[in-house]
Amino acid sequence: MPSTYAHYRMGQEVIEQVSSSARDIIMKHYVERKPRAIRNSFKRLGVTLKN
Hints:
Blueprint: H1 2-17, H2 20-33, H3 36-45
């Protein structure tokens, strides 16, 4: 679980720093492939994933 959170936080920081066209590509694939298990893990922690 700690590695899942660490990857999520790092991803959020990267998304904030890339250009808008790169962000659009990243988010398109992130939303399409975001596994339900990861969403559920964060939900148990009380964390809402951004899309």
